[in-house]
């Protein structure tokens, strides 16, 4: 991910997790319907019971803890691997129930409803807090930014709206995806949520660059790293307002199985 280091430095300087969460994930946010649709898709991917195991790594975007609620009951432990200190701090604040922590209760309640009310929202939140075992700060200028610090051959990696934010170009995206998949064991899974057709997003007063990806590029990159897509859904943007805030066209959700190692 060396090609991503300059972009990571820009995000490290300008990106504030609290601004991002307030704009895109709070209950009153205009993107609430889009977020609920993503949670529905993730719950659907996991409902078969095929995607499960001991360890799940949340790779980047770790302040968006709401997307972990569908996965937490299928894994014994969760590791958060992150490149931005602001995101790590947002996660720590929620895990430790500190003042100013983002309120994820709406997402927890929504996921419980999708799962058939097996547990109430507060139970879901406490269950996930108990399963998060490690928070790791990664460096984008290393050839393999996560591998030296995290266990390899884990059962699953979840990455939500991260690669397109951190990667500078398609070659960098392919390299980052290869690094990510190298941590997953044969037969394990990658779950990705990617904003497609996006070139920028606003975070507070700052306009930050986003790598513009399309569905075919993502599919080709997954094939190249030895993965086969099992399920996918490319959802057109529900909220058509605020294109001055972020300009994505759709959100591509997928679960892919790793079938072979690629050198």
Detailed description of the structure:
The chain is 36% helix and 26% strand. It has 263 residues and is of the alpha/beta class. It has one domain: 3-Layer(aba) Sandwich (Rossmann fold). Helix 4 links the parallel strand 1 and strand 2. Helix 3 crosses helix 6, helix 6 packs across helix 7 and helix 9 packs across helix 10. It is globular and about 45 Å long. The model has no long low-confidence stretch (mean pLDDT 89).
Average pLDDT works out at 89
The structure class reads: alpha/beta
Please give the largest β-sheet: 7 strands, mixed
Number of domains: 1
Strand order of the largest sheet: 3-2-1-4-5-9-8
- CATH homology superfamily name: Vaccinia Virus protein VP39
Poorly predicted runs of 5 or more residues: none
What is the CATH class designation? Alpha Beta
The CATH architecture classification is 3-Layer(aba) Sandwich
Shape: globular
Tell me the radius of gyration.
Answer: 17 Å
Would you tell me which CATH topology applies? Answer: Rossmann fold
Report the portion of residues in β strands: 25-35%
Helix content: 25-40%
Secondary-structure element sequence?
HHHEHEHHHEEHHEEEHEE
Describe the structure in brief.
This protein is an alpha/beta fold and 263 residues long.
Which keywords apply here?
single chain; 263 residues; alpha/beta; Rossmann fold; seven-stranded mixed beta sheet; two-stranded antiparallel ribbon; 10 helices; 9 strands; 36% helix
Topology:
Elements: H1 5-14, H2 17-24, H3 32-46, E1 53-59, H4 69-72, E2 75-82, H5 85-95, H6 105-114, H7 121-131, E3 132-137, E4 154-160, H8 163-166, H9 170-181, E5 184-196, E6 200-203, E7 206-209, H10 215-224, E8 227-236, E9 250-258
Parallel strand pairs: 1-2, 1-4, 2-3, 4-5
Antiparallel strand pairs: 5-9, 6-7, 8-9
Helix pairs in contact: 3-6, 6-7, 9-10
